[in-house]
Amino acid sequence: MKKIVLTGACGALGSVLRAPLAKLAEELVSTDIAQAPAELMPNERFVQADLTDLANVEAVMQGAEMVVHFGAIPDEAPFEELLGPNFIGAYTVWEAAHRAGARRVVYASSVHAVGLQETMSGHDTEVPHRPDTFYGLSKCFAEDMGRMFWEKRGLEAVCLRIMSCTPEPQNARALYSWLSHGDLVRLVEASVTTPVTGFTIAWGVSANSRAPVSNARVSFLGYHPRDNAEDWADRLLPTPKSPDPSDPAQRCLGGPFAVVPLGESGVAAIRRMTETG
Description:
One of its GO terms (molecular function) is oxidoreductase activity. The chain is α/β, with parallel strands linked by helices and 277 residues long.
């Protein structure tokens, strides 16, 4: 490919993707509202940009064949705070990608688009939206917009419902929800290099023995995860615990995001859960 654009390039996940994406194109243009990373790949160019500014994003997109959109606030927050980066920012990325003649947007969606679905029900990629937060609602908005841009304008999209992506699984919930950094790279590379995707939703999850979701419907992506959170089970489950069937944080895919008040940080709730075991 001649040019890939990566948004959110300075974020926790975007920074993992910069080097692998640089290998897939003649030029990688990385962008973030933050300042440039200390070092860039030989074929990487960085542009500091605000995703809510359509003209700004259009300039970044010129000549792009593929857009990997990971720029957003990655947590629950008041709706007014999410409106710009997560809602309007998603629109400007899709609109600018369309105007630039890009072929596809690979989007960092989230399990929180369906976070109030029950974990033990078993879900493929056709499970309907059931957001657990304003943050999850922003992912529903972007997924629906991606489908509309495909059906009305022919711009492909692969929406990755990422569960919990960390270098190692952090808590008992991660035994089913973990996405390793290595599998994140494999998933994004597959989403970029698959010849035809149309509009596709895929789960961002590793090959966990306890995974409650399935990518069987989208095997054409060629995503083959290699890591399994079960390798950490002895550390994460030192003593058996009785489940509380009345607790949505245990019962729902969104975990603690399913119970935090709207507008309050879900990441903080997960951190507290991790610290207390």
